[in-house]
Amino acid sequence: MPASNLFNIDGRVAVVTGASSGLGQRAATILARSGAKVVGVARRGDALEDWANGIGDNAAVVAGDVANLDMVDDLARQLAAPFGAPDIIVHAAGLNPRLPAEDLTPDVWSATLAVNLSAPFFLSQAFVPAMKKSGWGRIVNFASLQSFRAFPNGLPYGASKGGVAQMTRAMAEAWSSSGIMVNAIAPGFFETELTASVFADPERAARNAAQTCIGRNGEAEDLDGPLLFLCSDASRYVTGQILMLDGGFTAK
Predict the structure, then answer these.
(1) Using alpha carbons only, what angle is made at residue 151 by residues 147 and 157, rounded to the nearest 5 degrees?
(2) Tens-digit pLDDT profile for residues 158-216
């Protein structure tokens, strides 16, 4: 295959969760701009519609709660309706309650794990049969710095993201022999709704930037290349891996 075709995703169908904002929306945008037909899903239908209107014919949206595991099959049918079953799934939806361990409740714990850990597995599971039939698929989970490090007030989030790292390896073991590559991106500090409290404190944001090897926090476009790599034939022999998109934060 010519090198120029390695990152080609023209005509692929992608589903991106958490597409209403932040890195999820960035992922949905770069995939659509690169030629994929993208279905964005999130709970906020108005924000999704605004995004799709800015993209055009390559975009469709479904307002839904990926954490409602009783409705996974119904949600999967809705997501496949606009363009067909997806070749690519990007699980960017996330929940981080940022509470002290003493203040956590079973409801908060369960909600966090449902969004961050359970939803990526069960939604992927719903689409795996179609991927197996075509012999090609790409699943990209979102891990985190907290997959490997403990941060203050991050117990359920860290537990869920540690699970995502191992789930990624286990999903690869289960499905990659059928042509389905499963990997994860682990972002460092990017300014999104999920990290608003971090960037609201300039000194804290500066400390995080200084911790990286590059000397700055992440910018939205830093996601583009790694995502296209993991969603295309460029990653045909890469599976079960967690790509740290952190400017070298975890290298120091």
Answers:
(1) 55
(2) 999 999 999 999 999 999 999 999 999 999 999 988 788 888 999 999 999 999 999 99
What range does the domain containing 28 cover?
3-251
Asked if residue 120 lies in contact with residue 170, where contact means CB atoms within 8 angstroms, the answer is no
Catalytic hit among 51, 121, 127, 157: 157
Residue-wise pLDDT for 221-242, tens only, equals 999 999 999 999 999 999 999 9
| Active-site residue, 157 included | yes
Phi, psi of 86 (to 5 degrees): -75, 145
Please report, for the domain that includes residue 75, its CATH number.
3.40.50.720
Euclidean distance between CA atoms 209 and 189, whole angstroms: 8
Which of 2, 9, 3 lies closest to 28 in space, CA to CA? 9
For the chain, the domain total comes to 1
Side-by-side strand order, sheet with 59-63: 59-63, 37-42, 13-17, 88-91, 137-142, 180-187, 242-245
Residue 8 buriedness (CB in 10 A; 0-12 / 13-18 / 19+): middle
pLDDT at 192: 86
Matching residue, tokens 């659509």: 32
C-alpha span between 89 and 139 (Å, rounded): 5
Contacts of 34 (CB under 8 A, 6+ apart): 7, 9, 10, 228
